[in-house]
Amino acid sequence: MVIDVNTSNTMLPSTLIQFIAYTFWADLRVLQACTQLTPDQFVRPISPDPGWHTLRGTLVHALDTAYGWRMALTEQEDRAIINETDFADVASLTQRWQLEQTAWLAYVAQLSEMDINAVWWQHEHYRRTRWQTIMHVVNDLTHHRSEAATILTGFGHSPGELDFDLFVVDVLQQQQA
């Protein structure tokens, strides 16, 4: 079966906001689980290495990804890579993560349906809409969140369920009640 990805190339703002809200909800659950670690566990080199050497490194890389793409989407200058050494502990990383959450939610909340579905990047014959790029960020953060959750579980501190369904039940349905 061949799927024509160009036949339904639209996204609703409310759906995109839910995905961003879910992503940061799940990321903050992972960071909450990190508070159970010793400072040494948070910065200890991991084997096998998922690519960022430590749990802190993995989480900072994910934060930098969210920040970098937000800067690109808002056409702001990406001042620098966010470095692992900028965060001495889980509390400082969580605080910065919450700032990024606020910035992302404010950004997507002000986008119209036309803005979300507009092509914002084009190179030769490749095009990308805002929503496609935002979904790339959501997916990439899911990837790194799963790496972090695996590391946490190895330390005996699983962050628990991080499923979108749990977010719907615990967060969205409570907001509607």
In short:
This protein has 177 residues and is mainly alpha-helical. It contains 7 helices and 2 strands, in the order H-H-H-H-H-E-E-H-H. It has a two-stranded antiparallel sheet with strand order 1-2.
Structure description:
With 177 residues, the protein is mainly alpha-helical. The protein has one domain: dinb family like domain (Four Helix Bundle (Hemerythrin (Met), subunit A)), CATH 1.20.120.450. Helix content is 62%, strand content 5%. The protein contains 7 helices and 2 strands; from the N terminus they run αααααββαα. A two-stranded antiparallel ribbon has the order 1-2. A hairpin with a 2-residue loop joins strand 1 and strand 2 (126-129). Helix 3 (55-73) runs antiparallel to helix 6.
Strand elements, count: 2
Listing every helix as H and every strand as E from the N terminus to the C terminus, the arrangement reads HHHHHEEHH
Strand content: 5-15%
CATH class: Mainly Alpha
Mean pLDDT: 91
Q: For the record, give the distance between the C-alpha atoms at the N and C termini, rounded to a whole number.
A: 41 Å
Radius of gyration: 17 Å
Major β-sheet profile: 2 strands, antiparallel
* Parts with pLDDT < 50 across at least 5 consecutive residues: none
Sum up the overall morphology in one term.
Answer: globular
The level of helicity is 55-70%
Number of helices: 7
- Under CATH, the homologous superfamily reads dinb family like domain
The class by helix and strand makeup works out as mainly alpha
Number of domains: 1
CATH architectural category: Up-down Bundle
Q: Which sequence of strands runs across the widest sheet?
A: 1-2
